[in-house]
Write a structure and sequence with these properties.
By secondary structure, the chain is an alpha/beta fold. It has 7 helices and 14 strands.
Length: 239
C-alpha cells in the first residue's frame, strides 16, 4: 500500500487527484493540504510515502515545501503536479522525484507512484538516499531529462557539467559535487573533474602515460588522478 498526501490550493484539483487515486487499490490517501505549510505539517504527522504537490500555492509554495520535506528522516518522495513547465528545473533542484504536467494522465501518475514507492522502500532498507531518477538541463529544445542509469561519465569544465551516455552528451544543471554526494552509490570519482558510473567500468588502461578508465558504450577514457589510483585499482583489480 502506497500512502499518499495530496497538496493543492485548488479544491477542484484536489478532487480530481482524489478521483484518480481512488481507482488504485494499492494507494491510500492519508490527507489533503491546501498550501505548502500544511503540506510540511501533514507530512510530518502522517508520514506518507509520496507527496503529490502543486508548485504555485499561498503561504508556502511547493518548492519551499519540498525543501522542508526533503530533510525529514526518511523523506517521502515528492511528485510535482502542475500546469507550469517552467518550474521543472527548480523542482528537481528541490529534490523532486518526478514532475507531471496537468492534466495528469492516469498511466503517468501510476508509473511515477510505483517508482517513488520503490525508492522510498529502498531508502528504508538502507538503499540509496536519492529519490531522483533523472538529472536535467536546458537545451534549445527546452527541458531535457537524462535518466541517471544511462549516464556513463560526468565531466566538469569550469562551471558546466557534461553527462555522457550511449546516445550522446548533455550539459547538466547540477554541480559535480552535488551529484557525487547524492549518487555516491552509483558514481565514483576518478579525477577532480570526473565521475564515472560504477557499473559501466570495463577496465583500466593507459592513455598518454596516465592511468585511464574504459567505460561501456562510450569511447571517452577519463584520466585517473594519481591520488585516486589506489581506489580504482581496488575496484578494478584485473589490471
Amino acid at each position: 500500500m502506497i500512502k499518499v498526501l495530496i497538496v493543492d490550493d485548488e479544491s477542484l484539483a484536489r478532487v480530481r487527484m482524489q478521483r484518480l487515486l481512488e481507482k488504485k487499490s494499492h494507494v491510500e490517501i492519508v490527507g489533503e493540504a491546501k498550501d505548502g505549510l500544511e503540506a510540511v505539517e501533514m507530512a510530518q504527522q502522517y508520514l506518507p510515502d509520496v507527496v503529490l504537490m502543486d508548485v504555485r500555492m499561498p503561504e508556502m509554495d511547493g518548492l519551499e515545501a519540498a525543501r522542508q520535506i526533503a530533510i525529514m528522516n526518511p523523506p517521502p518522495a515528492v511528485i510535482f503536479c502542475t500546469a507550469f513547465e517552467d518550474f521543472a528545473l527548480r523542482a528537481f533542484d528541490a529534490k523532486a522525484f518526478a514532475y507531471l504536467l496537468k492534466p495528469i494522465k492516469a498511466a503517468d501518475l501510476d508509473a511515477a507512484l510505483q517508482r517513488a514507492a520503490s525508492a522510498t522502500r529502498a531508502q528504508l532498507n538502507g538503499g540509496t538516499r536519492s529519490h531522483r531518477r533523472h538529472l536535467c538541463s536546458r537545451t534549445h529544445n527546452g527541458l531535457e531529462l537524462v535518466p541517471v542509469e544511462q549516464i556513463r561519465l560526468l565531466q566538469a569544465d569550469q562551471k558546466y557539467v557534461t553527462a555522457y551516455t550511449a546516445e550522446g552528451e548533455t550539459v547538466l544543471s547540477d554541480t559535480l559535487k552535488d551529484i557525487e554526494e547524492e549518487f555516491s552509490q552509483l558514481f565514483i570519482r576518478v579525477h577532480r573533474s570526473a565521475l564515472v558510473a560504477r557499473d559501466a567500468i570495463e577496465g583500466l588502461t593507459y592513455a598518454e602515460g596516465h592511468l585511464a578508465v574504459k567505460l561501456r558504450d562510450i569511447t571517452i577514457e577519463p584520466i585517473v588522478s594519481r591520488r585516486l589510483e589506489p581506489k580504482l585499482r581496488q575496484l578494478v583489480p584485473q589490471l
